[in-house]
Amino acid sequence: MAVIPNNYAQLEQGYRDKALKLFPWVCGRCAREFQYSNLKELTVHHIDHDHTNNPNDGSNWELLCLYCHDNEHEKYTDAARFGSHVEAGADLKTEAATHNPFADLKAMMGKK
User: Fold this and answer.
1) What's the pTM value of the predicted model, to 2 decimals?
2) Could you give the CA distance from residue 71 to residue 77 in angstroms, rounded to a whole number?
3) From CA 60, how far away is CA 44, in angstroms rounded?
4) What's the number of CA atoms in the CB half-sphere (13 Å) around residue 60?
5) Phi, psi of 26, deg, nearest 5
């Protein structure tokens, strides 16, 4: 993990502003939607956990709500505590679920 620079607050505001312009205001994990009134609860997470790696295209960022962001970092605390291993960004490489159990709900409701 990288050392956090002295001007971290200034850097954070810069990449946060960029990320909020690049991405929809939705948590990348739980899909909670945000509006301007609660935008302070949406954070920028560095996928590789390197806070100095801030490409302008946002490829190392994802927007996470406070809860999902805390959960993401808790993985590393748990790994250290229990002697397991966590790879930064590994969960983003998994295939997303595509099954929709309610896709034919209207048709199912019409059956007798």
Assistant:
1) 0.66
2) 10
3) 10
4) 12
5) -135, 135
